[in-house]
Design a protein that fits this description.
This is DUF2975 domain-containing protein. It comes from Saccharopolyspora shandongensis. Keywords: Membrane, Transmembrane, Transmembrane helix. The chain is mainly alpha-helical. The chain has one domain. It has four helices and five strands, in the order αββββααβα. The strands form two sheets. Strands 4-1-5 form a three-stranded antiparallel β-sheet, with no helix packed on it.
Length: about 200
């Protein structure tokens, strides 16, 4: 298809550049640097934010103002070993690897816009893959956080003070449903275009 008045090759190049830049940044700061922290060249991650079983509370004078703490704290390792370093970055690593996959697929979709080929036949399966990856990320990251936090705290004095929970991201499920709907629309558009071209 030829280019349309509302979309130009420059727009397509700008979109590809933006997605490519995001892919590069996530790959560097979200995947490569954490891995280098685990293996040694870079300083490792040594903390994990956790929830406490009971919120800290300071007693106050009756009728006066009381100070109540939150249920959040940090589990800090003075000298984390290799296994600890890996467990500390694993949830972030899982999430960012899935994000790299999503951005890579999105970049392939954006490349079809160069000739305003919005309904390229391959775009529907690509969007469906993104629709699956989004809720998968929202499920796997909290699950990995829960499992690794439990393993990190096991056998430490802080074990009984930590409440290990998984907080699943429902927003990613909603986004996945929206992208799945877009995938259906793209598939129908590609089918309609093929039928129309067959009549010409």
């Amino acid at each position: 298809m030829g280019s349309t008045s509302w979309w130009t090759r420059a727009d397509s190049r700008a979109l590809e550049a933006a997605i490519g830049l995001g892919l590069l940044l996530v790959g560097l700061f979200g995947v490569l640097f954490p891995v280098l922290g685990v293996t040694g060249p870079l300083p490792p991650v040594d903390t994990r934010e956790v929830r406490l079983a009971d919120a800290a509370q300071l007693p106050g004078v009756p009728g006066a103002v009381a100070l109540r703490g939150t249920d959040h704290a940090e589990l800090v390792f003075a000298a984390p070993g290799f296994a600890d370093r890996l467990l500390l970055v694993l949830p972030e690593l899982v999430g960012n690897l899935l994000l790299v996959a999503i951005l890579s697929i999105l970049l392939q979709v954006a490349r079809t816009f160069r000739d305003s080929d919005l309904f390229a036949p391959r775009n529907a399966p690509r969007l469906l893959a993104i629709a699956i990856a989004l809720p998968l990320r929202g499920f796997l990251v909290p699950l990995a956080d829960m499992v690794t936090t439990d393993l990190l705290a096991a056998g430490t004095p802080a074990e009984n003070a930590i409440r290990v929970v998984a907080e699943f991201d429902l927003t990613s499920l909603f986004l996945g449903l929206l992208v799945a709907a877009a995938a259906v629309a793209f598939r129908n558009g590609a089918r309609l275009r093929a039928d129309t071209e067959g009549l010409v």
